[in-house]
Recover the amino acids of this structure.
């Protein structure tokens, strides 16, 4: 975990947030899927959401119960500075999603864009899924986006696991009923295309 933590601290300390490959000006797909799922009083956690603008978009849309979790304090600091006083209305958590202490049956929505595909160790993936089972309410929505079969083999110098929709859903198993999946072609700041697969599930 220490090496993983230091890697991401280095990334956000050395690169501007709009120069990392996963940067989005607006998290349109994520925001739409969340808006389809719940009202503005829902409890939402954005996993690996450090410097992402999703929290801005959610606040702009009137969502009030937001948590952002990231391994890198430096990434969270970017969002906090960007939001200014509005950052006080968000709960910020620093930690590894596979190990951090999360509340039981707290969240109506679990959102993760581009964390799960970094978990190349099956034990880490099992711990991740256990965290989702623990902290998402029955009937809550789970939105996880990873690189698809046509996506890159590495990101930020790290190996990743690419997933077809069925394979991604299979990692989570029977406690999560697949509602739908989508494919998105993300354009990086350098103009490259990356295939993302979004799986949208309900915690049964």
């Amino acid at each position: 975990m220490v090496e993983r933590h230091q890697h991401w601290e280095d990334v956000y300390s050395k690169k501007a947030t709009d120069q990392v490959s996963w940067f989005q000006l607006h998290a349109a797909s994520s925001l739409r899927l969340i808006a389809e799922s719940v009202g503005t009083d829902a409890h939402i956690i954005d996993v690996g959401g450090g410097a992402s603008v999703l929290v801005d978009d959610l606040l702009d849309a009137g969502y009030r119960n937001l948590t952002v979790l990231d391994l890198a304090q430096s990434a969270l600091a970017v969002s906090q500075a960007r939001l200014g006083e509005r950052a006080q209305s968000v709960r910020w958590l620093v930690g590894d999603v596979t190990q951090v202490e999360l509340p039981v049956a707290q969240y109506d929505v679990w959102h993760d864009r581009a964390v799960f595909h970094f978990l190349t160790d099956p034990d880490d993936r099992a711990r991740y899924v256990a965290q989702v089972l623990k902290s998402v309410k029955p009937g809550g929505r789970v939105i996880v986006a990873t690189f698809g079969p046509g996506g890159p083999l590495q990101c930020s110098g790290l190996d990743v696991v690419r997933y077809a929709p069925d394979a991604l859903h299979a990692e989570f198993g029977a406690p999560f009923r697949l509602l739908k999946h989508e494919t998105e072609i993300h354009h990086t700041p350098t103009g490259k295309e990356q295939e993302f697969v979004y799986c949208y599930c309900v915690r049964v």
Q: What stands out?
A: The chain has one domain: 2-203. The CA atoms of residues 174 and 204 lie 8 Å apart. The radius of gyration is 16 Å.
